[in-house]
Write a structure and sequence with these properties.
By secondary structure, the protein is of the alpha+beta class. Helix content is 20%, strand content 32%. Among the domains are: 6-53 and 145-237, Probable tRNA modification gtpase trme, domain 1 (Gyrase A, domain 2), CATH 3.30.1360.120; 289-372, Beta Barrel (Elongation Factor Tu (Ef-tu), domain 3). A hairpin with a 2-residue loop joins strand 19 (350-353) and strand 20. The chain starts with 5 loop residues before the first strand and ends in a 9-residue tail after the last strand.
Length: 372
């Protein structure tokens, strides 16, 4: 017998809005409310509202909280200033990626680690196991937060109606405590859409209040509720990796082209250091498959797992994510391909879509970058 999916504090709200719900990482989540394309375009041109309460929050506190995270993660977290956030990863001893994370430094001795829903327990268990010898505590705060995101060019104006926090002074990858619609929130300028926007960590009991206030504040500029489906096409256009697709335990950050997140210069040892040093050296000597963008010449949509082939039919890579791109008006994909076929404009690259070799153009990621 399988466990029933968990429901967020906004579950009744989603159903009242007519959302199509889906099981995602053990949570009942909205897939879409209207059409994926409409929601996607709203975020690119106006604003979209997302329930991300399935993400996993883990709080690390204590005099050696920073030192513990420096040991447990690949990034230099102890150097993070209070109020700032950092994208990083947690790796296995063999260098394989267990998850990609955002870490917020909330106070001198307090950090919040935000893990992907599917990996939250794995990350929690790994941090707890790596805690030995550090004067720091690891706390599961997954039930302590609801997470609501407002994303898109109109999002600063919408949020300004509901808070007196200094949004103009809030940099990208920074967070500050404040009130939104009269309730306490951590207001972070982060997101997974390629647009400007904010992620609001609030108590579950306050989630409906904040959602409804944002809906009202955004009504006159065309804010719409958005599901997981358009979140995926938005992040795909922005070239952002998705765990389980572009990132897996079989890959190191260097294999994924994200070696920059590994900070060998930080003090002390960290889990996976030796294996990652070897991976870095290997990547320098013989470049691994590279993550590239592929844009279709035709209309057929590639999906994860489809082989990428050269003109002669030789397999040279594999698609990790694919979808129709509302912004480009064509199907797009992210794929790992052999280094010699990875340069933008490489001729003869095709995707094997159920036996037919469809032509694709190799492009540099991301497919879309907002004008700042």
């Amino acid at each position: 017998m399988t466990d029933a999916p968990r429901r967020t504090a906004l579950d009744a709200t989603h159903r009242a809005l007519g959302a199509t719900m889906t099981d995602f990482a053990g949570w009942d989540m909205p897939l879409r409310y209207s059409s994926e394309r409409e929601e996607h375009v709203a975020v690119r041109t106006r604003a979209g509202l997302f329930d991300l309460s399935h993400m996993g929050e883990i709080t690390v506190t204590g005099p050696q909280a920073g030192a513990l995270l420096d040991h447990a993660l690949v990034g230099n977290i102890g150097a993070l200033k209070v109020g700032r956030a950092r994208y990083t990863m947690i790796c296995a001893p063999d260098g394989g990626i267990l998850d990609d994370l955002i870490v917020y430094r909330l106070a001198e001795r307090e950090f919040m680690v935000v893990a992907n829903a599917s990996n939250a327990q794995v990350v929690l268990d790994a941090l707890a196991a790596r805690q030995a010898g550090f004067d720091a505590a690891v706390r599961d705060d997954r039930d302590a937060y609801a997470l609501i995101a407002v994303q898109g060019p109109e999002s600063p104006g919408i949020l300004k109606k509901l808070t007196d926090a200094d949004l103009d002074g809030l940099k990208y990858y920074a967070g500050l405590p404040g009130t939104v619609a009269g309730v306490e929130a951590l207001i972070a300028r982060t997101g997974y859409t390629g647009e400007d926007g904010f992620e609001l960590f609030v108590r579950p009991a306050d989630a409906v209040t904040v959602w409804e206030a944002l809906t009202e504040a955004g009504r006159d500029v065309g804010l719409v509720p958005c599901g997981l489906s358009c979140r995926d096409t938005l992040r795909l256009e922005a070239g952002m990796p998705l765990y389980g697709h572009e990132l897996t335990t079989a890959l190191t950050p260097f294999d994924a082209g994200l070696g920059r997140v590994v900070k060998f210069e930080k003090e002390g040892d960290f889990v996976g250091r030796a294996a990652l040093a070897t991976a870095a050296e290997r990547a320098e000597q013989a470049p691994p498959r590279k993550l590239v963008g592929l844009v279709a010449e035709g209309r057929r949509v590639p999906r994860a797992g489809y082989p990428v082939v050269a003109a002669d039919g030789t397999v040279i890579g594999e698609v990790t994510s694919g979808a129709p791109s509302p912004t480009l008006g064509k199907p797009i994909a992210i794929a790992y391909v052999d280094a010699e076929h990875a340069a933008p404009g490489t001729a003869g690259v095709r995707v094997d879509i159920r036996g037919t070799h469809e032509p694709y153009e190799v492009v540099a990621l991301p497919f879309y970058k907002r004008q700042k």
